TrEMBL record:
Organism domain of life: Eukaryota
Pfam family, one: Transferase
PANTHER family from the UniProt entry: PTHR31625
Source species: Rhizophora mucronata
Protein name: Coumaroyl-CoA:anthocyanidin 3-O-glucoside-6''-O-coumaroyltransferase 1-like
MF terms in GO: acyltransferase activity, transferring groups other than amino-acyl groups
Keyword Acyltransferase: yes
């Protein structure tokens, strides 16, 4: 298998907000929505753009504008330039920015084939890793407080082809909606359009009637002493047999599957089912993954009553009793678990069974997004240890392909952390009217089986 290539690092910069526009020190408390993500691996996101110019042009015209617009953006998204501070228990972690803080920006050059890098077909997972920036290492102050950087950026130039904006950030500072707000704001600043709204940091709007903060803090304190604050890199040998690929569900496939699920549900249940693009995409991919796992003999001995789990997050900004604005910056997610028996997933109508279970879980959110929230972390630990959990990353609703810096929509967006987490990555397609993209990273032997099963399922819809 081909080894990962390297990039040539051209320069390093420390990007800060413009001086004098933010108080010299500014702290931001963590809410109970943020605390579970203290335990999460860093997010790794890549945006590839067509930009067929020479390296001289890119360095002298594009790079300075990217640096300036990033600085101006950090004025409003100051937590990303700050650090997560984790004092010894029982003190609560928080985010702190002061005027000496900065974001690490690496500029690199790659001579690999740009079109090969952004292709959908199966390839070594390590091909994308050189485009992911390294987060600066955490440090410990004399009083035992850990200081953890939150964001790093890398711009990789492909001479006469394009560029890649790579971002690594810690989930505790922002969920997918907040991160995409940051990226689109940065893009808007570069275009000088100013069309993106300012972020909201009003933590007072987040109410905690169920005492979730104390529950999650206790969970965190149990982990904190042994937690690896610098995790994010993975030894090369752990990824040596893994490949990644992007699969496409066209709009006609999605519409037919929605219709099929709705009809079969209506025939057996008079209640209304939540059927969406997200639901049917998750269902089809989940069932195809389980079938590929069964076919190559991975997993537990056969037991039809064994439960398999799908986990996804649901945005809560408009689902809380006191609604939060769409511009709320931070985390505001409910963690959802969907259990389905092995026998139901592997049956002839397994996709319909999976879609019903996912749709019902989303429907349950109408009765209260925080119902059972106190068990989010304990449930995660329990089902992940059983080895029958698959997670979903991303959503078509995030509209990541609308991140336009003035060069048009991204040619490709990749979520690199799925190489390690094993999550299913879902987004809208670049042409927003033409379906969805599904990104996966699997051992090569299993990817071949999944590819065949997924393709056959699409033909049968």
């Amino acid at each position: 298998m081909a080894q990962s290539h390297s990039v040539e690092v051209l320069d390093h910069f420390q990007i800060s907000p413009p001086p004098g526009l933010i108080p010299t020190s500014k702290s931001l408390p963590l809410t109970f929505f943020d605390l579970p993500w203290l335990l999460c691996r860093p997010m790794q996101s890549l945006f590839f753009y067509d930009l067929p110019h020479s390296i001289v042009y890119l360095m002298h015209n594009i790079l300075p504008a990217l640096k300036t617009s990033l600085s101006l953006t950090l004025r409003h998204f100051f937590p990303l330039a700050g650090n997560l501070l984790c004092p010894p228990p029982p003190h609560k972690p928080y985010i702190l920015f002061d005027d000496r803080d900065w974001v690490s920006l690496t500029v690199a050059k790659s001579t690999v084939d740009f079109n090969q890098v952004i292709s959908d077909h199966e390839r070594d997972v390590r091909e994308l890793h050189p485009f992911v920036p390294n987060l600066p290492s955490a440090r410990v102050t004399p009083d035992g407080t850990r200081v953890v950087p939150l964001l790093a950026v890398q711009i990789t130039l492909f001479p006469n082809s394009g560029l890649c904006i790579g971002v690594q950030f810690r989930h505790v500072v922002a969920d997918g909606m907040a991160f995409n707000h940051f990226m689109k704001f940065w893009a808007s600043m570069l275009r000088s359009s100013g069309e993106q709204p300012l972020p909201s940091y009003d933590r007072a709007m987040v109410k905690d009637p169920n005492g979730l903060e104390s529950i999650f803090l206790e969970e965190w304190f149990n982990w904190a002493s042994s937690w690896d604050y610098n995790m994010g890199s993975t030894p090369d040998e752990q990824l040596a047999d893994k490949v990644r690929a992007t699969f496409v569900m066209e709009r006609e496939h999605i519409d037919r599957l929605k219709c099929r699920v709705s009809v079969q549900h209506r025939d057996s249940n008079p209640g209304k089912l939540h059927v969406s693009t997200f639901v049917v995409t998750c269902a089809l991919t989940w069932v195809s993954l389980i079938k590929s796992q069964e076919e190559i003999g991975v997993g537990d001995p056969v037991d039809d009553d064994k439960l398999y789990y799908l986990s996804f997050v649901a945005d809560c900004r408009q689902r809380l009793e006191i609604k939060l604005p769409a511009t709320y910056f931070g985390n505001c997610l409910a963690i959802c678990f969907v259990p389905v028996k092995r026998s139901e997933l592997l049956a002839g109508n397994g996709i319909v069974a999976a879609a019903k279970a996912i749709g019902n879980k989303i429907k349950e959110l109408e009765g209260g997004v925080l119902r059972g929230a106190g068990k989010w972390l304990s449930n995660w630990k329990e089902v992940s240890e059983e080895g029958r959990l698959i997670t979903i990353a991303g959503s078509p609703n995030l509209r990541v392909y609308e991140t336009d810096f003035g060069w048009g929509r991204p040619r490709k967006r990749e979520l690199v952390q799925i190489d390690v987490s094993g999550a299913i990555y879902i987004s809208e397609r670049r042409d927003r009217e033409s379906g969805v993209e599904v990104g996966l990273a699997l051992p090569r032997s299993r990817m071949d089986v999944f590819n065949a099963i997924f393709g056959q399922c699409l033909k049968q819809i």
